[in-house]
Specification:
Ubiquitin-like (UB roll), about 25% strand, 5-stranded mixed sheet
Length: about 120
């Protein structure tokens, strides 16, 4: 099982392949935002990697980050937990002014992933 470490929160063993956005919510108990439902459209699920950043990303993640000029962050909805990683949760419901975190993301990465090297 991969180990997910969330800065300031703790360490959690998560099932192999689980979406990071779901691991943050369900395993770490983080109020992680995902306004678009985890479909790589809104960038509210962003995290910063402290260690273990994946070397690949989905085309959807690459394109939305590029279109918004965002660097140094990743979209937790587009990352499978397939190795140990340490993240800083950047987008949380608390203090956001939103009424809820967003629609529950699907179990599988959406849109269906096409992988590219980061």
């Amino acid at each position: 099982m991969p180990r997910l470490t969330v800065e300031g929160v703790g360490e959690f063993d998560v099932p192999e392949g689980k979406r990071l956005v779901l691991a943050l919510e369900q395993d770490a108990g983080i109020d992680q935002l995902h306004a678009c439902g985890g479909n790589a459209r809104c960038t509210t699920c962003r995290v910063e990697f402290i260690a273990g950043e994946p070397s690949r990303m989905t085309v959807a993640e690459r394109d939305v980050l590029s279109a918004r000029g965002l660097t140094g962050i990743r979209l937790s909805c587009q990352i499978p937990c397939d190795h140990d990683m340490t993240v800083r949760a950047l987008s949380r419901l608390a203090g956001s002014g939103r009424k809820d975190a967003g629609h529950e993301p699907a179990v599988n990465i959406e849109p269906p992933p096409v992988w590219v090297e980061k």
